[in-house]
Amino acid sequence: MSPSSAAARAAVRTEARSPEAGSPEIRASAPAGRTLGTAGRARLRREARRVLFGNWTGNSTVPSLGLYPHQWSWDSAFVAIGLRHLSPARAQRELETLLSAQWDDGRVPHIVFNPRVPLDAYFPGPDFWRTSTAGAGAGAPRTTETSGIVQPPVHALAAWLVHESDPAASRRRGFLARVAPRLAAWHRYLAAHRDLDGGGLASIVHPWESGMDNSPCWDGPLARVTPAPPDSFQRADLTHGAAADRPTDLDYGRYVRLSADYRDHGYRDADAPHSFAVEDPSFNALFAASGYALAGICRELGDEAGAREHSDHAAALTEALVRRLWSAEAGQFLCRDLRAAPESGRAGGRLMDVRSVAGLLPLIAPGLPGEITGALLRTVTGEHFGLGTEVRLVPSYDLEGPAFDPYRYWRGPAWFNVNWLLERGLRSCGETERADGLRADVLDAAVTSGFAEYLDPYSGAGRGTRDFSWTAALALDLLGRPDSGAAGEAEVQRGEFT
Q1: pTM for the structure as a whole
Q2: Nearest residue to 456 via CA among 6, 26, 8
Q3: How many CB atoms lie within 10 A of CB 456?
Q4: Has residue 20 got a pLDDT over 80?
Q5: Segment 482-494 mean pLDDT
Q6: Angle at alpha carbon of residue 85, lines to 84 and 87, rounded to 5°
Q7: Where in this chain does the record put each Mannosylglycerate hydrolase MGH1-like glycoside hydrolase domain (predicted)?
Q8: What confidence score (pLDDT) does residue 108 get?
Q9: For 345-360, how does the pLDDT look when each residue is reduced to its tens digit (9 = 90+)?
Q10: 414-415, strands of its sheet edge to edge
Q11: What's the rounded mean pLDDT across residues 114-134?
Q12: Which terminus of the chain, N or C, has less C-beta within 10 A?
C-alpha cells in the first residue's frame, strides 16, 4: 500500500478493519484503554499460563507450536520475563538453556534447534545452517545445532528481572553466578566483532538479526543482494501463515542468500563480506539497556570492575546512538546503511530516511539527552505512529509511509514485545499516564486477540499465529508488575507452577 493523501490513508484504515479472505483474525471486543477488571485479569492470567505451559518443551519455550517449533533467542528472553511471575526457577531454566548453546566466540545464536523436530518443519533448519561443522572455526557447539546469526541482546535485562523476582532463591541457586560470564562474553562478542565501522555501535548483518525481520528499513540494503534461486529452498512458514502476512518470496530469497554467504565464510565476521551491514537503533538501545542490567548483575556478585566495564560501555553506546543515528529532522533515530555511499563530508555509510518503530525504542536507554527524549515523545504520539490517537498499539512502521501495510510482517502491524518495551521507556522518562494507557491497551489486546503474534494497529484484530509465547509472557509481566498494585502481583503469584 502506498497512501499518499489523507483520503488514501483513511481507505487504509477502513480496509484494516475489514476481514481479509484467507487471513483469519480475531476482533478486539473491548474499547482501547479499558481496564480488564477482576474477571478479565483472571481470564488473562489463566489463559497466559495455558499458553506458556502448552509451549513448554521441558527445558525451554517455543514461540508457537506450529510456525516456530524451536527455541528463539530474544523470544526466550521475553518469555523468561513473564515466566518469573509464575515460576522463577522455570524462567532461570529458560535463559540457561539458551545460553548453553552459546558459541566459543561469545555469540548467542538466534535459534537453538530441537533435534526431535522434523527437518522440514522449519526453514532454514539445521541442515541448512550446518553450524556444528561450518561454524567450527568460530566456536559453534559440536553437539547442538543452532543458527549462525544473532538477535537483539535483551538477555541480561531479562536475567536481572528474573533475579529480582525472587532474589533469595536466585542467590541460593547461584543463578546470576552461572549466567554472568556467558552474558559478559555475549556483550564482548558484539563489541569486538560487530562494530564493523569502528563507530562504537554493533551492526546487524542480516535482517533477521534485528528481530524486525521484514521492516521497510531493510528494503534499500536488500536491493543490492542477489536472491538465492527460488528452486533452491522450500519455505515452511506459508504452511502456517497467510501469504499476505508474510515476507515475499523475493525477500526470502535474499534472506537465504545472506545466510548462505555467512555460512560459506565459516560464520567468521572478519572474513565474511557482509553485503548487508546496518546499525540498528533498537538493537543498540537494547544492548545499552542490557549493559546497565549486566552492570547490576556484576555489582550483585561483588564484581565492581565488571560493573564499571559494562556501565561505561552502555553509556558509550548511548552516546554513539545519538552521534551516529539521531535525526533531528525526523524527530527519531534512523538506521545507518554501512554499505551505502556516505553523506557528504561524513564517513560510515548513510542514514536511511525510513521511519520504523526501531527508531523510538532508544526511549529505554538511560541517559538520553532531554531534548531527544522530548522529540521522541512527540514523534510516538504524532501522525507517524499515533499513540493515544490513531491506533490501538504503536505500529512497527510509519502510518504515513509508502510501504505501510497493516497486515504484512513488520511492515505496519503492532507487536506486543515492542509495545512492552515502549511502555517501559515511557515509564522510565516519567510519562506515567501514557505508560498506564499503553499497558491497559496491551493487556486488553492480548486477551481479546487470543494472544496473537501481532495486531492490525487500527482495529486491534489479531494477525499471524495465536497462542504466541511472548504475548502471553509480557501480558503476565504487565499484569504482575509491582507498580500495577500488590493485588495484581498476588493474583499472578497464586498461579505458580514449576
Answers
A1: 0.91
A2: 26
A3: 29
A4: no
A5: 38
A6: 60
A7: 68-471
A8: 98
A9: 566 899 999 999 999 9
A10: 414-415, 454-455, 462-463
A11: 96
A12: C
Please check the confidence at residue 310 and state whether its pLDDT lies above 70. yes
Half-sphere exposure of 266 (CA within 13 A, CB side): 8
Condensed to tens digits (0 to 9), the pLDDT of residues 201-227 reads 999 999 999 999 999 999 999 999 999
Q: Where are the alpha helices (DSSP H) in 146-197?
A: 155-165, 167-173, 175-193
**pLDDT tier at 242, thresholds 50, 70, 90:** confident
β-strand partners of 112: 71, 146
CA nearest to 103, candidates 185, 159, 180, 181: 185
Tens digit of each residue's pLDDT (9 = 90 or more) over 160-192: 999 999 999 999 999 999 999 999 999 999 999
Query: What value does the CA radius of gyration of the chain take, rounded to a whole number of Å?
Result: 21
Q: Which residues contact 482 (CB under 8 A, 6 or more apart)?
A: 489
171/281 Cα distance (integer angstroms)? 34
Let me know: does 197 contact 324? Beta carbons within 8 Å.
no
Contact 375, 331 (CB under 8 A): yes
Phi, psi at residue 366, to the nearest 5°? -60, 150
Q: Which of 22-36, 40-54, 96-110, 342-356 shows the highest mean pLDDT? A: 96-110
DSSP state of 199: S
Three-class secondary structure of residue 459 per DSSP: coil
pLDDT in tens, 354-381: 999 999 999 999 999 999 999 999 999 9
Residues 6+ apart with CB under 8 A from 307: 295, 296, 298, 299
Which of 17, 38, 43 is CA-nearest to residue 28?
17
Cα four-point dihedral sign 327, 330, 336, 341:
negative
DSSP class per residue in 405-433: -SSSTTSS-EEHHHHHHHHHHHHHTT-HH
Cite the active site residues.
213, 453
Query: Smallest Cα–Cα separation from 199: which of 123, 281, 142, 263?
Result: 281
> Any idea how long the chain is?
498
Q: Residue 425: how many CB atoms within 10 A of its CB?
A: 24
User: Which phi-psi region, left, alpha or beta, contains residue 378 (left: φ > 0; alpha: ψ -120 to 50)?
Assistant: alpha
Q: Is the peptide bond between 124 and the residue preceding it cis, with omega within 30 degrees of 0?
A: yes
Residue 205 and residue 258 in contact, taking contact as beta carbons nearer than 8 Å = yes
E strands of 121-275, at which residues? Answer: 203-204
Judge whether residue 129 has pLDDT over 80: yes
- Rounded Cα gap, residues 166 and 162, in angstroms: 7
Residue 215: strand, helix, or coil: coil
The dihedrals phi and psi of 462, each to the nearest 5 degrees, come to: -70, 140
- CA atoms within a 13 Å half-sphere pointing along the CA-CB vector of 155: 31
Kindly report, residue by residue over 280-305, the tens digit of the pLDDT.
999 999 999 999 999 999 999 999 99
Listed in sequence order, the residues at least 6 apart from 460 whose beta carbon sits closer than 8 Å to its beta carbon are: 27, 28, 32, 392, 393, 445, 448, 449
Q: Can you read off the three cell numbers belonging to residue 487? A: 493485588
